Amino acid sequence: MQKITRFPRVDGDLGWLETAPDTNVAFGPRLKGNHEFDYVVIGAGFTGISAAMRLAENEPSARIALVDALRVGEGASGRNAGFLIDLPHNMNFAKTGVEHARSLFRLNTFAIERLRQFKDRYAIPFWNDAGKYMAAHEESNLPGLENFAGMLKHAGFDHDLVTGPELTRRLGTPYYRSAVYTKGNVLVNPAALVRGLIKALPRSVTLFENSPVQAIEYGPPHKLKFIGGEISTPIVVQATNSFVEQFGKLPNRIVPIFTYASLTQPLTERQLAQHFKGVKPWGLTSAHMAGTTVRFTDDNRIFIRNTYDYLPELRSTGDELDAAWRQHRASFEARFPFLKEVTFDYTWGGVFSITQNHEPAFSRADEGVYVISGCNGVGVVKGTYLGYYMADYICGIESDDLSFILENSNPSWVPPDPLRFVGARARIAWAGVTAKGDV
Ligand SMILES: Cc1cc2nc3c(=O)[nH]c(=O)nc-3n(C[C@H](O)[C@H](O)[C@H](O)COP(=O)(O)OP(=O)(O)OC[C@H]3O[C@@H](n4cnc5c(N)ncnc54)[C@H](O)[C@@H]3O)c2cc1C
């Protein structure tokens, strides 16, 4: 019996969820009593929802359960920065080759277009085809930007270099020296999007919220234990992101990393007129890997994300949230010194899984046990296509894209704790030092 000892929790005030429509609506009951399903997907984030939806498309008569420890939108899928990134991210094209980059681009755009269809069909709000800036404030971080622009050029991906007064005009702040703008990225309220997807689930998918899996007795049939309930199933898909190790089928492959976000109150008409006249909503990631992600949102708020941490318990404390809040204030006031009176309405944390070689985990781990994890901070899009193709893999539907995913899903080994703890903390500390004013 595989017992689960670490469970997802709500870390802080979840700004996207609280500003999404139908925040308080429950989509599914708690799982109680004994049930049998043909498939069980654990994790109702972008990955799990996509897997459940595609399984239902492939086998319309199958009975599918989708279970989550939290409410939909409370997991990392509803806590992230809301970038649907089309271009390969954190990649060294020179090392992996241009064709590899193009394949990832094709998969990313496939996922974005699939999400777009659901957005259109179910009128999911806060979707903006705004593109994305990658920007640098520090001169020492300009080479990172130039390197990115060079790789885009090499692979033939469209991009613009934006600097000086033009960059200030577009962002409403003169903070950044230079930016690379790419147009295919979409900005969303991720909680609104992931919750909106629930409307697209067919009747053959039964969603159970607030239902943490407490233990699994592996079979098949596999028996998933809940408090006051059990599901028996021949096939289980684990789409639990950073909690994957709890289920015992993917040891020493991922590093769970915490990061934090804040969302301000909406700017007033006066503040908008004074400082953001003509500025359209935008999203910006940093040229430095430890730098700050910033957005000017559709509802006129500023979003800030930074601060990484390795928390073995997979949950944050009030002290950690407070430290993140202080860093967010400093980063916000450095970029928008003219908005010092603006407060943060929400500050929260979330955990995502990274792998050493940036390859995700996507595998049949045992008979009737399938595992997806390691979305490396770009899981909105990556989780969407991995979930989709996992369903195809299970149902025996072959394609070039599935073959590509299978060939490129071999996350390299990472040491267990305490070595992983020491290594992760050291890398995070060093990255923070070199990022300087880009944090
Ligand atoms: C602050 C922040 C900013 C980010 N920014 C971006 C971004 O801009 N773009 C991007 O693409 N990615 C971003 N990411 C990463 C992104 O959020 C993840 O890659 C993505 O959410 C992964 O989706 P998922 O469905 O695999 O995992 P999750 O959304 O984490 O879903 C896994 C689910 O499994 C459930 N679960 C775990 N254990 C159990 C259990 N025992 N029983 C039942 N259910 C369980 C959890 O409750 C959770 O809902 C960011 C992450 C954070 C934290």
Automatic annotation (TrEMBL):
One of its GO terms (cellular component) is cytoplasm. Keywords: Oxidoreductase. SUPFAM superfamilies: FAD/NAD(P)-binding domain (SSF51905). GO terms for molecular function: oxidoreductase activity. Residues 38-392 form the FAD dependent oxidoreductase domain. InterPro entries: FAD-dep_OxRdtase, FAD/NAD-bd_sf. Pfam families: DAO (PF01266). PANTHER family: FAD DEPENDENT OXIDOREDUCTASE DOMAIN-CONTAINING PROTEIN (PTHR13847:SF281), SARCOSINE DEHYDROGENASE-RELATED (PTHR13847). This is FAD-binding oxidoreductase. It comes from Paraburkholderia tagetis.
